[in-house]
Amino acid sequence: MIQTYVDRATIEAFLTRLGAEFPRPGRLYLIGETTQVYEGWRARTPRLVFAVEMASGDRLAFDEIVRRFQDQTGIEVFEEAPSDVIPLPAGYATRARSLASSGALQVYHFDPYSVAFRLIARGDEPDYGVVIAFLQHGWLAVAEMNALLADLLPRFTDETIQQDPAEFRRKLKGLLQMWRAAQPEATR
Predict the structure, then answer these.
(1) Is the pLDDT of residue 129 over 80?
(2) Distance of alpha carbon 92 from its chain centroid, rounded?
C-alpha cells in the first residue's frame, strides 16, 4: 500500500505495528497535525510526526521498525520533538494527553502548549493553522499560554530557536489576532 498522505487509519496501523513488533517500554507522542488527524479535526496530513522516549539501547530496533513501515507504506514518518527546537515549558509532561498503550509503548499527544510554542517559533502559515485548531478545540487557553510564556521566554536565545523573545511575542500576537478574527462575535 503506497500512499502520499496520513489519515487516522495510517496512524492506527503505525501504532499497531509498533505494538506488535516492539516489545520494549517507552513513550510515543503524536505531534501537531498528526494529533489533529487522530482526533478527527482534519482528514489527513502529508506526514506522520511523532516523538519518542525510550532507553537508548532500544532505539536501533525501534528505528528499524519505523523505517520498514515507511518503506512499505510510502508515507513520510518524521520524528521531531518540540524540545529539539525550544526549551519546554514547566509541567509539559503533565499536559501530555494519554491515548492508550500499543504493546509496551504508552501513546500520548505531546503537550499542546509545547507544540504550539514550537510551531509559533517556526512561524509558517500552516503552523499557525495547527495552533488555531488547538485553540478552537479547547486544547489551549490564551491565559495559560501567557502564563507559561512568562517563564519560558527568558530561556529563549538566538541559539535555541533562532529568534529573540520580542520576535516570538510579535508572532504570538499576530496568531491570536487571526484566531480572534475567525471567532463568532459572541465568543470573542
Answers:
(1) yes
(2) 12
- Residue 6 has φ and ψ, to the nearest 5°, of -115, 125
Q: Are 145 and 111 in contact (CB under 8 A)?
A: no
Q: Which residue has the cell 510579535?
A: 170
Q: Kindly state the DSSP code that residue 54 receives in the 8-state scheme.
A: -
- Per DSSP bridges, beta strands 76-79 and 97-102 are unpaired
What is the total residue count of the chain?
188
Write the pLDDT tens digit of every residue in 92-125: 999 999 997 888 899 999 999 999 999 998 888 8
Assign 182 to helix, strand or coil.
helix
Cβ atoms within 10 A of the Cβ of 165, count?
A: 15
Contact between residue 46 and residue 37 where contact means Cβ atoms under 8 Å apart: no
One-letter identity of residue 177: Q
Based on its alpha-carbon atoms, the radius of gyration of the chain, rounded to whole angstroms, reads: 17
